[in-house]
Each structure stands twice: as C-alpha cells, then as structure tokens.
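To: structure desk
From: M.T.
Subject: fold request, one chain
Message: Could you run this one when you get a chance? Sequence is below, nothing fancy, just the single chain.
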Amino acid sequence: MAEAPRLQISALTAVRLLRRDPLELFERAAREGDVVRIRVPRLDLYVLNRPDLVWDVLATHGGRFTKGPTMQAATRMLGQSLLTSEGEHHRRQRRLIQPLFHHERIADLEEPIRAAGERAVTRWTDAERLDVRAEMARLTLEIVVATLFGAGIEDAEAARIGDALNDVLAQFDRVFSPLLPVTEHLPTPATRRFRRARAVFDETIHRMIAERRASATRGDDLLSLLMRARDAGAPMTDEQIRDEAVTIFLAGHETTASALSWTWLLLSQHRDADQRFRDRLDDPDYVAAVLRESLRRYPPAWAIGRRAIEDHGADGVTIPAGSVVIVSPWLLHHDPRWWRDAASFDPDRWLGDEPATDRRAYLPFGAGSRMCIGEGFAELEAITLLRTIARTWRFEHDPAEPVRLQPVVTLRPKGALWMRARRVQMREGPAVRPGPP
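Reply: Done. Structure tokens follow.
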C-alpha cells in the first residue's frame, strides 16, 4: 500500500496548532487529501476526511480501534465511564445505562425542560445585553441537575459543579503537550485547578449516593436509576455510579448549551431563516430542521479520535497500529462535496429526502457502537427550549463583535457571546412537543 501524504510542518508546529487552533490544522490537512499524516512528538496522526473512510473507523471496523488520547486523558476526570471505557466494561455499562434513555422515559422529561425554559424567559429584560453562552449554560445546568440529581442539590452547589466543569474543559488542550507526563504531577496552577474540580464532583456525587442509600425513598432521577441498575444481578459500584453521573452531567450540560448558543447566533445572522423559524414554531419538524442545520454548521463533537490497535487500510494507505486517527464532523459537515451550498445556513435542506449527497457525512452524535447514548435527550432538550424561548425572545448579535471558536472537548464560543435580547409578541399555540427522534 502507498504512504499517506504528510502535512509539511514540523512536529512542534503541529503540537502548537493542536493546542491553539486545531480546526486550522485539520483544515490544512484536508486540503492535502482524504488521508493525511501529521507528525507530532511520540506518534503519528492520520486525518481521514471522506464519509466511507470515517464510517469504517467508527462503525464497520470499529473493533480495530480504541479511544484516542483526548478521551484517554478524560479518564482523569470521568473515570471508567461509558464515554471512556473499552471492551467488555464498556459493553456492560451500555447495557446498564441504555434503559435510562428509552424514548418513553425521555418523553417524560419534556415538561420539566419546558418549565425550566419558561423560568428562564422571565429573567431577561427587553434590550438587555446578555452573554447568551452563559445564559444557555445556566439553563442546561438547571435541567441536568434536576434530571440527574433530582431535588437533592442546592443552586450554589450546582454553580460550583458548573465552574468545576469549565475548569476541566479549559485544560483539554494539554492532552497533546509533550510535557504533560511531567506537568500533571507538578503543583502548577492548572494541575491545582484540575484537582479542585475533581474534588467538587467526588464530594457532591458520593454524598448524594450516601444520602440515597440511607433513605427508603426510591427516586426516579438518573442518579437513583443508576444505583438500581443491574446486569446479571450485579449492581454498579459507587465508583462506577460516580463516573457515569459525571459523564452524563458533562454531556447533558455542555453539549446542549453549545448547540443552543450557536443556533441563536445563526438565527440572528440569517433574518429570513429566523422569520421562517418563528412562523413555524408550532411545527416541531421545522424546529428540528433548524437544530440539525445548526448542528451541521457547529457540531459540538467537532473531532473524534481513535487509536489503531492493528494495522488499518484507508484508501490504499496503511495506517500502522499505534497511530491516532482523527475524524472530524466539522470537516465533513462543511465539505461542498457532500453538501449543497455548504457555507449557507439552510434549515429547509432537512425537509427533503436527502440533505446530503452521502448521509454518512452528518454525524453530530458520532456513529457505530459508541454513538452518543443521549442523542434523544439532547434533541428533546434543545427543541423544547428553542420553541419555549423563541415565543418570547429573539437575540441580536452585533456583527462588530467577532465570535471566535474554542474547540476543546466540545465546540464552544471562545469567551462571552454577547447578544441583545429583544422581546417579541407572545404567541398562542399548543403545548411544546418534541420533534421526531
């Protein structure tokens, strides 16, 4: 087999871009071809940028790969959770957790999600300048706390968890630093922040586990359900429950906050699409189309890493065992080979039969056996909140204020996302219903 073309930059330059502007690095690689090698210290990265090649890695031949460096590093915070574990442990955890995300149970969460959105719309005033990213994070934090922890957590403690999460996410760029094996054991400010953040999660969740064990009440929040989950008669250990609870918190809070933030920004930038969206708020299919187009433009899971455990062939190139493969929804979602007018914001494309020339080019929730287990919850939450908030508010972004991307574990705006809240005439309509799963 042939060798992959190599991106002609030094290993140190590649590391610098991985930490400071990974989207630029991967876009440069994609311009060189569909299988491109990038040399970094201690390993080779291979960027794959064609739907069939990506599908091979994530689904068809997923058994040839394990998690990549980012998720392996995430075990420092998330432990051996569904997101980070491998092999039989991963399969067992998925069997245990899957019933918690059954569509009937998810549908029961619609009302508390809508109620949280209705409380949020009363917090803002007309013409107020808001950090929409912070507001959406506050809202999704409230929802995940209610659904995961039930009534057993105070607002101040929830805020501490949210701050701890931000501290952790801000440090994921250290994964590719050649100095990480040394610096993670030194009392640097970053290491101290990480340890404090982990302590917040540990203290909160282990306390709540103990409280539930001491109580005769059988709650129906996710933490209680995790504690009751059994596989072949064996329950999870407290440490496994802690790991899964932290992971659900991260996924349920951060990804939806980012998706909502980007959706409000895109609607502000495209007034015609915004008007159609508001005219059709009572049509859950159309609101779902708006969300899916936003997820295409700004996929929260913007890149997925895998490490090859055996040699893998991709488009005539041998990717050696031990190499790290990068597949990027960001690249696929913006590629004009698969999308008509790829740079546009066009929710209507999702109302036809085939929005893309290759359906495998859309993967905001991943693919294969590791596809996001919370996809149904995420769509329900985002669609319900969009419909609830839009009945009262629109958000205007000043084009003079640049928006920069911060690709960490998720793709989020870098810093604040300042927008002006504008009250709209209240609309009468049926109760908010979720879009299709």
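Reply (cont.): The radius of gyration is 22 Å. Let me know if you need anything else for the meeting.
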